[in-house]
Design goal:
single chain; 272 residues; 67% helix; Serine Threonine Protein Phosphatase 5, Tetratricopeptide repeat; mainly alpha
């Protein structure tokens, strides 16, 4: 759906209490994306990482050609781990380079961006099947891309699958390169998958990487806030899923919820 359209396609009614599910998700994502990054490196101007539309278009074409070249090699060497990892990175680069700037100076992911990230997700899945020792650097790139894809997904089902994949990739990063950033990100991602035990474990490990009492308390406060919102979000999702199933039985729709993560500010909206 193009941004700015007045058409809203939903298979269930979100009026009343259910409308709060959108607000809850937005709040969680703002914390998830910003908390660990801000804690370690401070705010980042994402829009400033991209140049003019001409340079972006040229870069996108270059990465797409690179991806197609790798795919030709995979025909001769199916299941090649190194090639699949290279393909994953090329598709992610193509997706990130095909973003568009909006009138406010922020970035919007285009339909092409989403398609490239979906192809990257497929390549990453094949890569994990082909290797016994996943690349930590590759997992770090994949984790970020998969989390972005979760926000761009059209349905809740797709979003949940992508956030699970993002968490799995982040776990590889945290285990291979344990740090305050990698472990806190894993903790926050795990909360969003509702695996609270794993989130607590990652939090404890992240706490050992803090350099001061203030930093440790700040991390714990962020975790508590996200955990509170995650539990509330889980409750709302459960209610929404029940409503969708009831609607599907009555022939009101397919039972697949529209993803409330789409259109989130900060560079994660989808434009045509």
């Amino acid at each position: 759906m193009a941004r700015g359209s007045n058409e809203h396609r939903m298979v269930f009614d979100i009026r009343g209490k259910r409308r709060h599910v959108v607000k809850v998700v937005y709040a969680i994502l703002a914390l998830l994306m910003g908390a660990s990054l801000f804690l370690v490196v401070g705010p980042v101007n994402i829009a400033g990482l991209f140049g003019t539309s001409n340079s972006v278009s040229a870069a996108t074409g270059q990465f797409e050609e690179q991806a197609e070249h790798i795919e030709h090699k995979l025909v001769k060497e199916p299941g090649g781990a190194d090639l699949l990892l290279a393909l994953t990175k090329a598709r992610i680069n193509a997706g990130n380079s095909s973003v568009a700037k909006n009138s406010e100076g922020g970035i919007e992911y285009t339909v092409e961006s989403k398609q490239q990230l979906e192809k990257a997700s497929e390549a990453w899945s094949e890569y994990l099947k082909a290797t016994k020792e996943p690349s930590v650097a590759g997992a770090e790139v994949a984790s970020q891309a998969l989390f972005t894809l979760a926000q761009l997904s059209r349905t809740t089902t797709e979003s949940e699958a992508n956030i699970q994949a993002a968490t799995g990739a982040q776990k590889i990063v945290a285990e291979g390169r344990p740090s305050l950033n990698s472990l806190s990100t894993l903790s926050f991602y795990s909360l969003y998958t509702f695996d609270y035990k794993a989130a607590q474990k990652a939090l404890k490990e992240a706490s050992t990487k803090t350099n001061s009492k203030f930093e440790r308390e700040n991390l714990e406060n962020q975790f508590e806030e996200i955990s509170k919102r995650a539990h509330e979000f889980q409750k709302q999702v459960t209610e929404a899923n029940k409503a969708a199933k009831a609607g599907a039985k009555q022939g009101a729709g397919s039972g697949s919820l529209e993803n409330p993560l789409g259109g989130l500010g900060g560079g994660t909206s989808l434009s045509e």
